[in-house]
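Hey,

The postdoc asked me to send both predictions to you directly instead of through the lab channel. I've kept everything plain text so nothing gets mangled by the mail client. Protein one:
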Amino acid sequence: MADGPGLRTSIYCAGCEHHCPGCHNPQSWKFENGHKMSIDDLMQVIKDDEISNVSFSGGDPFYQVEGFTELARRIKTETNKTIWCWTGFTYEEILADSRFVFLGVKPQMIENVVRSLEEEISVSDGIFVSMLAGVSLEKLALLLGEKRKIIRIMPNTACAVGHGVLLLCANPPAYLFRCGERKRSSHISCADKPGIVLFHYLCLPCLILPQSLCHLRAGNAISRHI
């Protein structure tokens, strides 16, 4: 039960500098402990246990963020399992060092959330990804800062069209941004005007559309600017 609710397949990584009092696994603090395993091998272990969900623990998984990000992507792509990740990093530390910051709170909560993280947001160079229905890019820029790179996504688009896609639009600072788990060096340019990128969740080719199409029906909700 210490690794999450119900039955879990726990992936323990080696290495942690937090040394939290009361840590239940201090033998994992040393980075040289443990042994290497490929993501394919880990996926086989995870899939062999059909009824258990997955927990990332250690050590601290965020010291191996690239590997665990890819493992999480594989788990969500190839299974229906949930993932819990245990870390000693604070939310503020993660925010300051993140390439992407996802805003998934209720629209009416965003002002208080931003206010509570004002200092961390001011030093972040990440791309802020908003899932807030009806909150426009202009409103987000006022809250986060005009120079922040911001994109809006419509996660429910896949429900509406029956395919693994997202609807996305970007503000001017985010015209040029990385896209693709597999093609890390590829970029999408929104040219000289804001646009919408309709792209597959698994990073297949992108289609750039006018920003006015952001009002398209997505799932069971219509996004309106506020």
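Protein two:
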Amino acid sequence: MPVTNIITIFSPCLSISTRYSLIESTDVKLVGFILFLLDMLLINTSTKASVITMSITLKFIMCFKTLWARFKQGLYLQKKYIKIPNLPFIFAQISDLHFDSTGKFPTWVRRSIEDYLYNNPVEVLCVTGDLVDKDDEWAQTSLEWLNALPVNYVVISLGNHDYNAQDKLFSLASQYPKLKLFINNTFVYNSVNFICLADKADKYYKVGLQRMKEMYAPDLLNFVLSHNPNSFLELHDIKEITGLYILSGHTHGGQVGHADFIRSLFKRFISERKVMRALKINHEHDCFQLQGTTQRNGNYLFINNGLGSHPPGRLFCPPQLTIFHEG
């Protein structure tokens, strides 16, 4: 069988691999060399079984490599860079740490955050909630880790998982001058106004919305730290305020990449709500958007995918560090 026929057999696999840019040129050369050897070995054979077997084997290997490369997207820290006009310094955002005893916030993610901050000029780190998973015994661990990071300040708003640890978090944070933990209050640094809004499920959330006009600084850049992205829907309705940059988390980015595709695949057989809960999509809450950026009425929403995760973990949805810089 000539080489051209064998290449024809392999072409679907090659097209899939190159489509996702996961097969490097060296791999393509290797496949070509293997095909050449096959051609030499099969010159004097009359059976097609060996050709089919080898074809299927190589297809399986290459497809497995493609799937593994896609799976590994959930095994690294994704760095998302966002340009903000006239931003005078670089700051970063993390969310949903979920410190606990089960390892929901993996050590390798912590090390990745530390490595980036030690090697880049980030001045402020914003944390948009869920420092701990449930128990207040992890409050000190979470704050000690944040305090040790090489930034000038760490600005913190709380999330729904921080309720049980709220009192202890405030008590401990007051011992670290670098940590700025607030509910419905502001922290101004180098012409940037950071507004820490209470979580949407907090009893003080409506109080925070009422105080937005007071906390808003029209002459400064205003970044609102609000754990639940649904607060964006109410913030952009405040007509007297515009130009807000809302930083949120809470959704974990869905934890499962291509969640819309998975939902559409199964919703004919299972209710969409059950599919969402099984895959931990929406973090078991009805958030109008899982990840990405939204703009309405001059206000912007940035949803961070978070660092921690709930079982069964992340799939094609890596933990995320968002970096804001001038542009």
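Summary for protein two, as requested: The chain has two domains: 3-73, 76-326.

Thanks,
C.
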